[in-house]
Design goal:
This protein is mostly beta strands and 491 residues long. It is built from six helices and 33 strands. 7% of the residues lie in helices and 36% in strands. The chain is globular, with a radius of gyration of 25 Å. Strands 12, 16, 17, 24, 29, 30, 31 and 33 form an eight-stranded antiparallel sheet that branches. The chain folds into two domains: 99 residues, Sandwich (Immunoglobulin-like); 312 residues, Jelly Rolls (Sandwich), CATH 2.60.120. It binds 2-acetamido-2-deoxy-beta-D-glucopyranose (NAG). 2-acetamido-2-deoxy-beta-D-glucopyranose binds next to loops. Belongs to the insect beta-1,3-glucan binding protein family.
């Protein structure tokens, strides 16, 4: 059984609707009350003659079965068609599965419209209509000694966590994000934005991110990102075409910038690799918690996984000015993939990329198997683990990460001083999942084994020119496979 946690309150997730003749069953609003009560309603509109709800808690509907809650509502009240059950008892984290039905009179005929496969995860319990409000609203920062708790009556008790999801506190230990890729095609728009842009700073990877089924797919319920050469998708020599490449209307980057349109001229070429990158920005973001990704990292020269947390609103500045948490990173090159890295990135120069990176090495390659990679992000530290084995914890230095400004050439880090001691990692972040190739994630070397130098305009072309050296290492395992991404609130 899959679970899809949506973290919107009183909002509804997009699901299938049966719209004909211009009518669609409106989005339902789901509200759960403490100690008891469940209300599901839709707004009234001309022509609606009947509303029916069929629902179950924490169990998917078996087709159009009646369900635990099953009722026809024959009259609208105060502008809404409302199902209300005063005895229903739901807890935060419960999911209501349901389908709705509406009789609609279009002026000539009365037609029935169904909306199947709906669900809503309860993220808060509201005071019962007409009852007095609960004692206190939940504070943003929970004191360590005394935490307020929302009493939901019995087993479903919620103890407030320091973890927030889109500004609201979660319950301790609660699973707040669970990707289920077997439902990806249907549900991806609820949680993910699929990038369509040319990669630019801060890593300048040699990649165009696209939403292409050859590159981005679901295999055996796992998300798979399989980068390919731009020339092999669009034709030999495509990357040196002077007319360039315009991603057009669908570009998710900044319009009329190098994120959406690039040309080739002299040393400048179109990125030679097409890959994919997904992010939850604007859909799911959180502060503090444990994130775990079960994945098989890509194997192949100069490929690398992008399993990041990036700042949701970039209050401290763009890119690394707001920091980045890396859940797992390994170069796809044979030999180098025996080293796994995780940690935080504070700035663009190599020293700022390395300062807070933890590593763990083994004799085999980390790209050979699936592993559980996790980061435990707390208000005072970030701990990296793989397969439940801790390999490093990062504590900010006395004076915070901003005190490293001179040594690490940090830009704008003065702003971090306005935050907590773990700033810039004291703001909500969103999840990024993707595959990169080349760019600034590989240090320059003098032994000639890396075909380009960073910070040179010609670097991408040098990488492309050397393709006979690395292309043959991209075999069937040159892809990132992700079984799940889960996030839990702190205990
Ligand atoms: C990794 O996660 C999977 C799925 O949750 C679990 O079955 C497995 O035991 C975990 N492996 C380790 C080594 O922790």
């Amino acid at each position: 059984m899959y679970m899809w946690t949506v973290c919107l309150v009183l909002a509804f997730c997009a699901c299938f609707s049966h719209g004909q003749d211009g009518f669609e069953v409106p989005d339902a609003t789901v509200e759960a009350f403490t100690p008891r009560g469940l209300r599901v309603s839709i707004p009234d509109q001309d022509g609606i003659k009947l509303f029916a709800l069929h629902a179950k808690i924490n169990e998917e509907m078996n087709g159009r079965e009646a369900g635990t809650f099953s009722r026809d509502i024959t009259k609208a009240k105060d502008g809404r068609w409302t199902f209300y059950d005063s005895q229903a008892k739901l807890a935060v984290g419960d999911t209501l599965y349901f389908w709705t039905f509406v009789d609609y009179f279009d002026g000539e005929r009365k037609l029935g419209f169904v909306r199947d496969d709906q669900f809503f995860t309860i993220t808060e319990l509201l005071p019962k209509p007409g009852a007095k409000p609960p004692p206190a609203s939940v504070p943003t920062v929970t004191p360590v000694t005394k935490s307020p708790s929302i009493d939901t009556g019995s087993n479903g008790g919620c103890k407030v966590s320091t973890t927030t999801v889109r500004g609201k506190n979660s319950c301790r230990g609660q699973l707040i994000f669970d990707s289920s890729f077997d439902q990806f095609a249907k549900n991806k728009a609820n949680l993910w934005t699929i990038q369509r842009k040319f990669a630019t700073g801060p890593d300048y990877e040699f990649v165009i991110y696209e939403d292409n089924p050859i590159v981005l797919s679901v295999e055996n319920s796992r998300l798979a990102i399989t980068p390919i050469l731009t020339d092999s998708l669009y034709g030999e020599g495509f990357v040196v075409r002077p007319e360039g490449f315009d991603l057009g209307e669908k570009c998710t980057g900044v319009r009329a910038s190098a994120e959406c349109y690039q040309t080739a001229l002299g040393w400048r070429i179109i990125p030679p690799v097409i890959s994919s990158q997904l992010k939850t920005k604007g859909k799911f973001s959180f502060k503090y918690g444990k994130i775990e990704v079960r994945a098989k990292l890509p194997k192949g020269d100069w490929l690398y996984p992008e399993l990041y947390l990036n700042s949701e609103s970039e209050e401290y500045g763009s890119g690394y000015e707001s920091g980045q948490i890396r859940i797992a990173f390994a170069a796809g090159n044979e030999g180098e993939s025996r080293k796994l890295e995780g940690g935080v990135i504070l700035g663009s120069i190599p020293a700022a990329r390395k300062y807070a990176m933890k590593t763990i090495e083994k004799t085999q390659s980390w790209t050979d198997d699936f592993h559980n990679f996790s980061a435990l992000w707390k208000p005072d530290s970030i701990t990296l683990s793989v397969d439940n084995m801790v390999y490093g914890t990062i504590f900010p230095p006395e004076g915070g990460f901003a005190s490293l400004a001179t040594n690490l050439h940090l830009k704008n880090s003065d702003k971090w001083k306005s935050g907590t001691k773990i700033a810039p990692f004291d703001k909500e972040m969103h999840i990024v999942v993707g595959v990169g190739a080349g760019g600034h994630n590989f240090d320059d070397r003098s032994d000639g084994t890396k075909p380009w130098f960073n910070n040179q305009p010609i670097s991408q072309k040098e990488f492309y020119k050397a393709r006979n050296q690395w292309q043959s290492s991209w075999k069937t395992e040159a892809k990132l496979q992700v079984e799940y991404v889960k996030v839990w609130a702190l205990d």
